[in-house]
Amino acid sequence: MAKLLIFATFLLVISGTCLATPDTKIESYVVYLGAPSADKSPEVLQASHLQKLSSIIPSEEQERVSLTQSYHHAFVGFSAMLTKKEADLLSGHEEVISVFPDRVLKLHTTRSWDFLNAESGLRSERLSRRASNDVIIGIIDTGIWPESPSFSDVGMKEVPTRWKGMCMEASDFKKTDCNRKLIGARFYSNQAESTQARPPSNSSQPQALGSPRDSVGHGTHTASTAAGSAVTDANYYGLAQGTAKGGSPSSRIAMYKACSLGGCASSAVLKAIDDAVNDGVDVISISIGMSSIFQSDFLSDPISVGAFHANQRGVLVVCSGGNDGPDPFTVVNTAPWIVTVAASSIDRSFQSNIQLGNGVLFKGCAINFSNLTSSLQYPLVLGSEVAAKYTPVSEASNCYPGSLDADKTEGKIVVCVSTDATVSRRVKKLVAEGARAKGLILIDEAEKNIPFDSGSFAFPQVGTDAGTQILAYINSTKNPTAVVLPTADVKEFKPAPEVAYFSSRGPGGLTEGILKPDIMAPGVSILAASIPSTDVGTVPPGKKPSNFAIKSGTSMACPHVAGAAAFVKSAHRGWSPSMIRSALMTTGTFLETN
């Protein structure tokens, strides 16, 4: 009977697939119509958009004549659920500039700002005398955790009267969560799920609820990096201790939650840009982007379209360049009117010492809070030596899921390599931890200076040189042993800054004549505010969830530049986006790279 049910289900799936042909499949599309007209109100524009939809959607499906988003501030357009055939018909309208699928875009501190001050030879305390607190930074991201001390408004003056934004309420977010620092918070309920078919807005079916509150941590981190208030004694379970602050602590923050853990819908990002410009922000920070593999032209790239019109309205848009490096032609957000940011290291490293049984010490890169000590050594084995039954040696060496035999691995420190990029460090950690290993040493040249946060599990990474010596030690003795010590932070680490391994490289595919990225900023091991994590294994025993997190990516570099831009804007209120961009690029330190 069970076989019959499975077969029937299979037939249903196949028949459903056959019915949904590419031309009839209903998906979310964005329709871009260009600059706004002063003589048309939002109501008139929306009526016009609905009329366009009515003209191409069959009469028997008129319930689909509904706008999922309407753009009418900085630019004009809308998003709606359409078939490919209907989208093609709309693109032929005289007023329509482009129609493109509503794609899902990817989500791409205590010392970083001090490091930038030291590198530039300037002191922000001296320059801040000229700064005002009327500059507003719009952050388009995953939301915000308003209780973080980084968003305290102590000592800040009243909100600028030019501000036209709002603080949207939800079951877990009240208007009182906004203050004179966090002056605005919006959310868009059709986040990454907007690319999937769903009932129109006038449907009787319940719609997804939302909130400006951050449930990922990404938006809180970027917002505090750009304009967080100074927080003394900030740290991540004792690491990176110091005073955390944003690049422009006197600036205001407006959060536009257009993203979730699954990504960011193009239509929501466009709406967020449209709202931010109309609300009165001065700078927009966007730490998200399209895939470097499937880049679109500027008229089909939602960030490019939105940023163009924001720039026309005097709003500077700063974007992350992507994390698909080190290969060339991987940089995204390359439109000439966008400030595209690459990521660099700073002069701080997080090291976890690996002490072998013969007394030799190696410095691994890691963030771990294990309780291992130098007084006790553990058996050291290769992944291939503790492989599960019938598992290929290559899979066990790479710590593939299910590749390790827990009975052989328990209580030992496993050495794995990374010859298959499809198995992430997080997966390798979970595999070793699930096999009851005492720790994991990863040998991998890629990202060897980008620490992975493994919580209470001992997990350092070394490059091939150190890895070769560790393997030689294992082969030189009958009973190899080792211990992995908890992480310590190392200041004044050299050389710094270096281009981060993961940072996407230029040139831009559509702008080979224009150098991209434009500028580089700290994006490796950046401490900033985050949501208090309660995930098992991430909080060290006996500790409370931290209000801060250490993250890496061009997502972290982008708000550094946005904060610097806001700082310049505060001292030169009349400067245009191009002038601010020029000031940042021409006063940056030139760095030669290989």
Automatic annotation (TrEMBL):
Extent of Polar residues compositional bias: 191-208
The name this protein goes by in its record: Subtilisin-like serine protease 2
Domain Inhibitor I9: 28-108
Gene source species: Rhynchospora pubera
Alphabetical list of InterPro entries matching this protein: Peptidase_S8/S53_dom, Peptidase_S8/S53_dom_sf, Peptidase_S8_Ser-AS, Peptidase_S8_subtilisin-rel, Peptidases_S8_3, S8pro/Inhibitor_I9, S8pro/Inhibitor_I9_sf, SBT
Residue span, Peptidase S8/S53 domain: 133-587
Lineage of source species: Eukaryota, Viridiplantae, Streptophyta, Embryophyta, Tracheophyta
Keywords tagged on the record: Hydrolase, Protease, Serine protease, Signal
Origin superkingdom: Eukaryota
